[in-house]
Amino acid sequence: MNILLLGPPGAGKGTQAKRLEERYGMVQLSTGDMLRAERAAGSPLGKQVQAIMDAGKLVSDDIMIALIANRITQLGGKGFILDGFPRTVPQAEALDVMLEKNGIAIDQVIELTVDDSALVDRIAGRFSCKNCGASYHDRHNLPKHNGQCDVCGSTDFVRRPDDKAETVAARLTAYHEQTAPILPYYAKKGVLRSVDGMADIDVVTTQVETILNKSKG
Ligand code: AMP
After folding, report:
1. Distance from CA of residue 150 to its chain's centroid?
2. Which of 27, 65, 132, 187 could form a disulfide with 152 if both were Cys (CB 3.0 to 4.6 A apart)?
């Protein structure tokens, strides 16, 4: 099964994608994580995108399409969860072309809806495990055992530089202006489902799983 998670920054796409990855053995394809890995490695691509990411703007479609095309051909038939791609209509169109070329179909497009007013709080409080990437939040989702990652036990955590309140506003603007227009694109194809991303994390997971089970059924 191949799915696409859509929604604004802070909607919980990464958290839900990680859960689906653990439970169903699907592969999370997070373009944000891919770019952060390029930056951490100090690659030419990492250096090229650094300022754009830190300003909360979108990296160019050409770069993103090339990055994801590379990963999709390496999947070897495993189901995937696209998280953070596509983020523009040209990216959505290019994705369709590359999937068709590889004989792959998207089974479900799931939008996590969250009020803008809740997003700044969600993003500003979040952090993740440096080792395995599991996501947490200062108030809503702390590690269960005293500062140790629930998934891998690491005590090393990181915060994203673009999760600062100043940058979050730019990221939300980019979402509304450039990414939200892809929702009608998928609605027209009849594959778009919405889940209330304001609900408790476990409730969101259950709702996403219900959609996936119906799709399998
Ligand atoms: P994310 O982790 O998905 O919030 O992505 C972090 C940042 O990476 C975004 O604010 C963009 O600067 C960049 N980025 C990630 N995915 C894309 C994409 N599909 N198109 C353009 N920029 C992206």
Report:
1. 20
2. 132
